[in-house]
Amino acid sequence: STDPQRLFGSCFGDLVPQGIFTYYGCGRNTTAVHFDAHENLCLCVCGSKRFWLYPPSDARYLYPCNDFSRSAVVPFAQPEAYSQELQSAFPLTSQARPLEVVVNPGELLYLPSCWWHCVEGSAKRNM
Question: Which end of the chain has fewer CB atoms < 10 Å from its terminal CB, N or C?
Fold first, then answer.
């Protein structure tokens, strides 16, 4: 059979139906730095999505807060550009090493569970 679920479904574990989301945006919509407890596949249909990806080992530099899946640091900001107040509040952030990835139309990003990330959409419509 050529059914993708049969061919490749076991590569990603059990399907989590309550975890299927579509994100639409425009005007450089931006998320907070956070991690998801499940694996993600991000397919870009139009526009683009910029990601900063941090491995789970960078958590100690990202100041987890709330339910500990969110970070208190500013998304897409270089720590050396922080105000003095933010540099004092988050001194370890400069030790984090984000990887920047841009996902364009037709491209797919696999995001492992518990990888910290923030996402910025393109200026025009993005999905």
Answer: N
